[in-house]
Structure formats: C-alpha cells, structure tokens
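Students often ask why we bother encoding 3D structure as a string. The short answer is that it lets us treat folding as translation between two languages. Here is a chain of 178 residues written in the first language.
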Amino acid sequence: MIIVIIIIVIIVLALILLYNHLVGLNIRCKNAWAGIDNQLKRRYDLIPNLVEVTKGYANHERETLIEVIKTRNDEGTMNERAKESEEVSNSVKNLLAVAENYPDLKANELFKNLQIELTGTEDKIAFARQFYNDSVQKYNTAIMSFPNNILAKMMNYKEKEYFQVNESEKQTVKVDLK
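And here it is in the second language, the structure alphabet:
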C-alpha cells in the first residue's frame, strides 16, 4: 500500500514539474514577444526625430519619410506584425541611405546621434527577434516531446509561430533618389 502511495506521489510531482516547465516556457515566449514590442516602440520614438532632422535636407523625400512614422505594429497577427516591422526596417535603411547624399546632414551632430541610436535599436530588434525565436523553439520542442506532449494536449497548448519575414523582404534595399 505504501509503495502505491509513493508511486502516485511521484507521478503527481512529475506532472506538476512538467506543467510548471511548460508554463515557464510559455511565459518566456510571451516575455520575448514583449521584448520585440519594447524595441519597436523605441524605434518609433526615434524615427520621428530622425525624420524631422532629415526633412530640412531632403525635402523631396518628405512623403517617404513621413510614411515611416505612420507604420505601426500595434495590432494584427504575428506574421502581419513581422511584415510591418520589416517594412519599417527597409524604410529606415532608405532614410539612412538618403543621408549619404547630403554631406551637411551627415555632419549634423543631432542626425549622427539619432542615426547611432536607431542603428543600435535595429540591432536590439534583431536580437529580440532571435531571442523570441529561440524561446519558441524551446517551447515547441517541449510541447512535442514525450511525456510533455500528453500534458500539453490536455492543457490545450498549441505550437507557436516563429517570427519570420517574407523572402522578398530579405533582399538588399535599393535606393532611388530620382
């Protein structure tokens, strides 16, 4: 009788540990996604300042620069948000490329500082995306592995999407200032 009780206790403890592990991985994925959101917010705070500094030098690109500000990642599915994020990244690359044609702008200390901040933010966004994908990979592996998969099905845990971009958005950005 005592052996049966010990076995039941061990099984219950194992289930609790498995459950807590899955919950921890799920929360880690949510935290990683929040990290991406945080960096995107930082980018959106920097871009209007960079655009304002650039406007005086690059008047004929004004509409393109203003469009950068309007793009937001507040709503939508993960894939939609990934696509919008990549569009902003491409616009930022275009914006920084525009500065190459304006020596006075490149020499402007405020522009230099904003450019450094924005470049750093882009790097942080890339890191946050990678951290998210690593977290998703660990989570997805856990919910598909035995015996976690049994508990995951019972708790209705589903596979999470990776942060991905379209093939067309992985191409080198072409800048045409004509």
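Translate back mentally: The chain is about 75% helix and 0% strand. Keep this in mind for the problem set.
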